[in-house]
Design a protein that fits this description.
Helices cover 33% and strands 23% of the residues. By secondary structure, the protein is of the alpha+beta class. The strands form three sheets. Strands 1, 4, 5, 6, 7, 8, 9 and 14 form an eight-stranded mixed sheet that branches. A four-stranded antiparallel sheet has the order 11-12-10-13. The chain has a two-stranded antiparallel sheet with strand order 2-3. Strand 2 and strand 3 form a beta hairpin. Helix 2 crosses helix 3 and helix 5 runs antiparallel to helix 6. Bound molecules: ligand DP6. The site of ligand DP6 has 17 residues, from helix 4. GO terms for molecular function: ATP binding; carboxy-lyase activity.
Length: 362
């Protein structure tokens, strides 16, 4: 187990003038939700997620040593899909400020960050998880050049640690399949500081688990996740909710092993609705679901009752619906989505995804 102090390097044994790296990092979908945080991006409760495969961010980092050293500011250009993107810069600036103590070389280089997503822009799919994870991987590649002795374990855990400082859920996008983040007594090696691969047996029912993302509303969210997390301070149900997340995570440990999909569905759907219940009971209160979100949920419940096919939904902090189901019922569920759910999607749009392996060096 690493502590935050382990991620502050003493000295670097190597140096480099310029070069570039490229990494892709996927999005992830939480089954037990991270909702509420303490200072320094420490989660108020543990969470667990499926890493996705197709929805990802691809980021190229070019670096050149600066002449004026030591410099007092960060120097970087940001390109999104090949074009300068000024409005993303403050978020990156803040990220660099937060991680500088862990990567003391950051002010010594000028960076060009060139990033793109595989999913449509403004689809309502959060790109902060995949985006921050991809950037963190690139910075770790540079740190590894400066410190070639670094172990693989340190490389990935620190990448997740840094990604967390960019966006909490991003720490679950570094590694694959099933990732837990946050201290949980029954999950060995779990930490508030970074995500870890789920360390126990996972039943084959979850192999290639499918996630079809129904794009219900592609508009900007009225309330950002960061504001939503903040509203968990002094929230009337916060303490009970945080305790419930621990309980649900313990239940999932058993469910992952047994492959009991009926129990899986209960935990996952309850988590999704609880997340939105927390928003509706915050002060100020708000609703991110749309009428079509509810239409889809009801249609899934009806289909599941009638067919006994183990399909369920989860939600993130928005109106889109993630439809989760095992691979062996894909044909039937996709037909159901086509026949009955696509009408509720904006412009009939949806994205087929499934569990994936985490960040990849390109
Ligand atoms: C509802 O990770 O986007 O998707 O740490 O403020 O960047 P910040 O928040 P973020 O919150 C994600 C919340 C969620 C649930 C989850 O992914 O666990």
């Amino acid at each position: 187990m690493f502590t935050a102090a382990d991620f502050i390097p003493n000295t670097y044994t190597s140096s480099i003038e310029n070069g570039n790296f490229e990494w892709s990092a996927p999005s992830n979908i939480a089954l037990v939700k991270y909702w509420g945080k303490k200072d320094n991006q420490i989660p108020a409760n543990p969470s667990v997620s499926f890493t996705l495969k197709n929805c990802k961010t691809i980021t190229k980092l070019a670096y050149t040593k600066r002449e004026t050293s030591p410099a007092s500011n960060f120097s970087f250009d940001l390109l999104f899909e090949g074009k300068p993107k000024e409005d993303f810069k403050p978020k990156i600036q803040k990220f660099l400020e937060r991680i500088e103590i862990y990567l003391p070389f950051l002010k010594k280089y000028h960076f060009t960050i060139d990033t793109q997503n595989t999913f449509p822009h403004s689809s309502g799919i959060a790109s902060s998880a995949s985006g921050m994870a991809a950037l963190a991987m690139n910075f770790m590649s540079l740190e590894k050049v400066l410190n070639p002795e670094m172990t693989e374990d340190y490389f990935y855990q620190k990448a997740s640690f840094l990604a967390r400082l960019g966006s909490g859920s991003a720490c679950r996008s570094v590694k694959g399949n099933l990732v837990a983040w946050g201290n949980q007594a029954n999950i060995k090696g779990s930490s508030d500081l970074y995500g870890v691969e789920f360390p126990y047996t996972v039943h084959e029912n979850f192999n290639n688990y499918q996630d079809t993302i129904l794009l219900v509303d592609k508009g900007e969210k009225q309330v950002s996740s960061t504001v939503g997390h903040d509203l968990m301070h002094n929230h009337p149900y916060a303490e009970r909710r945080f305790a419930q997340a621990h309980e649900n995570l313990d239940q999932l440990i058993t469910i992952f092993e047994s492959g009991n999909l009926n129990e899986f569905i209960k935990v996952v759907e309850s988590e999704a609705l609880t997340l939105h219940a927390m928003m509706m009971t915050s002060m100020p209160y708000y609703i991110l679901m749309k009428p079509n979100t509810l239409q889809i949920i009801n249609a899934i419940w009806k289909f599941r009752n009638e067919t006994q096919i183990p399909v369920c939904f989860t939600l993130d902090a928005g109106a889109n619906v993630h439809v989760l189901y095992p691979e062996n019922v894909s044909d039937k569920v996709l037909q159901f989505i086509q026949d009955e759910l696509v009408v509720f999607c904006q412009n009939g749009q949806y994205i087929c995804d499934e569990i994936g392996d985490g960040a990849i060096a390109l």
